[in-house]
Amino acid sequence: MSGPPNNGKAYVLATAAYNEEAYLEKVLDSVVSQTVRPKKWIIVSDGSTDRTDELVQKYAGQYPFIQLLRITEEHPRNFAAQVNAINAGFALLKAMDYAYIGNLDADVSFGPSYFGSLLGKFEQDRSLGLAGGAIFEEKGGEFRGRRSNSIRAVPHAVQLFRRECYEVFGGYLPLKYGGPDWHAEIVARMKGWGVESFPDLRVFHHRPTGTAGRLSRHVFRQGCLDYSVGSYPLFEVLKCMRRLRERPLITGAVIRLAGFAWSYCRREERQVPQEIVDFLRSEQKERLRALVGQA
Predict the structure, then answer these.
(1) Which helix or strand (DSSP H or E) is residue 144 part of?
(2) What is the pLDDT of residues 221-241, one digit of tens each?
(3) Distance, CA of 252 to CA of 27 (rounded, Å)
(4) Number of structural domains found in the chain
(5) Is position 31 within any domain?
């Protein structure tokens, strides 16, 4: 095992954790086992009442690069809470000398070469500003790639930024319906940086997906999120229609489109500046033109 890499390749991490006792040791073991360890890792315990703090302190005693930051102030448990916790961790890392900075969820795990390989991807492509692996979830006793995996989108759970890319937007934006990772990707591309997820870098997500009722609310919220960030209506309709061909996703596609339509009819206020809406729609229209050309 090596210690932190030289400053030209050093990376730092922040993790938001709220009552993550059941999963936290998996990600702790994954990070301390890396062939290239982070220079610093801030784990933000956001008012945890289980053994989260105890576990972090246990590992921090053995590995000095791990640091616990505890938030004790009362606040609503919403999408902004996690974003604010991550940004609090990023704030502590701001003055450090590093080349890459990333968010890491508290319920994932990965192999010992994960970050070394990811850093290699950045070194091979100097235009790459935001990157990460692909998410795999357990189904039927084996881990399978998440349906939503795309090389165009980096999962929030493992987003790693080149420092110069991170500094163009300065941290995650707390949005009403979530989606700070999507906002980060749009800003990165708008500023000329490459964004890519690598299927060969497998990341295992251990938290159960949840009940059907929760899934319905989640998918409806995704439709609201699509509208709030400015997704082009025709693109949204066609995206959902394509998923109608995949039987397990039929209900989800209809619910997601309903969420988008609900926000559209209510003319909800956008959650991002107009320039981001314009840029996203220009990308989506270009993809639509490409599809028409292929047809």
Answers:
(1) strand 142-145
(2) 999 999 999 999 999 999 888
(3) 30
(4) 2
(5) yes
